[in-house]
């Protein structure tokens, strides 16, 4: 009988001791910091980044000047067949942004429009490269876009960002623009007046008259020239601005 009582007392004491250890374990666990889960909020943000904005003027090549010298045009012409013309929503042609991102003259900005592109007496003639220099470049740039030289007469070597908007003649601003003649404003045997020329003339005039900032016009033009007028909030190009005879723009 005494042995039975002793065993019961020992078991009771063990039960109390085990309960105390369990309580201490819970308290320690509650006070210890838990590791951050692998699927934390900060990591989730990395996995789902905020979409980037479309390329604007920051994507433009910035030249120290007009983009050419006696040694030739600045920039490297891409490999033959490596560039591809894209189509805008309205069917107009757009250059390959990897080959023709556009280039601007770093000397020209919003603060000196009146003294540069808007100066009396004209501006573009003073920075345009010689015809023989651009003609030599045209063959290489056509090749980069996979266009045979036999088709050269169907294309204009165009400054994607026009000279009148402070661009440079770096080859990364030159592309083969397909001749799309406006009704009554051009044909195969006359000087070309492409549909893009109207947009260029309209935006250049708006910048010179300080209706829109130069930087915003550059941005809209290189993103998509076919939507630049609307993107800038300007009224549609009036019919009176379209002229009555063929002629190239001041690009």
Write a structural description.
By secondary structure, the protein is α+β, with helices and mostly antiparallel strands. Helix content is 31%, strand content 10%. It has one domain (59-242). The strands form 4 sheets. Strands 1-6 form a two-stranded parallel ribbon. Strands 2-3 form a two-stranded antiparallel sheet. The chain has a two-stranded antiparallel ribbon with strand order 4-5. The protein is globular and about 40 Å long. Mean pLDDT is 78; it is low at 1-56 and 186-192. The relative contact order is 0.14. It has 6 helices and 8 strands.
- Give the CA-based shape: globular
Percent helix:
25-40%
Measure the end-to-end span. 115 Å
Q: Quick one: biggest sheet?
A: 2 strands, parallel
Mean pLDDT metric: 78
Give the tally of structural domains.
Answer: 1
Strand content: 5-15%
Number of strands: 8
CA-atom Rg in angstroms: 34 Å
Keywords: Signal
Signal peptide: 1-22
Organism: Arthrobacter bambusae
Region (Disordered): 27-61, 84-127
Q: What's the topology here?
A:
Elements (H helix, E strand, L loop, with lengths): L1 H30 L9 H7 L13 E3 L4 E2 L2 E2 L12 E2 L5 E2 L8 E3 L25 H14 L10 E5 L14 E5 L16 H14 L5 H10 L4 H4 L20
Parallel strand pairs: 1-6
Antiparallel strand pairs: 2-3, 4-5, 7-8
In short:
By secondary structure, the protein is of the alpha+beta class. It contains six helices and eight strands. It starts with a helix and ends in a 20-residue tail after the last helix.
């Amino acid at each position: 009988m005494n042995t039975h009582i002793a065993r019961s007392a020992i078991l009771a004491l063990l039960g109390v001791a085990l309960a105390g250890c369990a309580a201490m374990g819970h308290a320690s666990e509650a006070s210890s910091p838990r590791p951050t889960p692998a699927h934390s909020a900060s990591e989730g943000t990395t996995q789902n980044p905020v979409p980037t904005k479309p390329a604007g003027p920051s994507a433009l090549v910035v030249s120290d000047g007009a983009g050419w010298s006696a040694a030739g045009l600045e920039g490297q012409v891409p490999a033959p067949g490596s560039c591809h013309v894209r189509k805008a929503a309205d069917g107009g042609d757009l250059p390959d942004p990897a080959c023709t991102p556009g280039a601007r003259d770093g000397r020209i900005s919003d603060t000196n429009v009146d003294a540069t592109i808007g100066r009396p007496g004209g501006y573009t003639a003073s920075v345009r490269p010689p015809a023989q220099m651009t003609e030599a470049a045209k063959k290489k740039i056509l090749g980069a876009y996979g266009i045979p030289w036999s088709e050269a007469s169907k294309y204009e070597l165009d400054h994607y960002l026009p000279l009148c908007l402070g661009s440079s003649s770096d080859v990364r601003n030159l592309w083969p623009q397909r001749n799309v003649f406006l009704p009554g404003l051009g044909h195969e045997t006359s000087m070309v007046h492409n549909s893009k020329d109207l947009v260029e003339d309209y935006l250049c005039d708006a910048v010179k008259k300080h209706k829109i900032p130069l930087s915003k016009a550059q941005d809209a033009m290189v993103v998509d020239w076919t939507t630049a007028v609307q993107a800038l909030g300007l009224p549609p190009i009036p019919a009176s601005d379209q002229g009555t005879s063929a002629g190239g723009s001041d690009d």
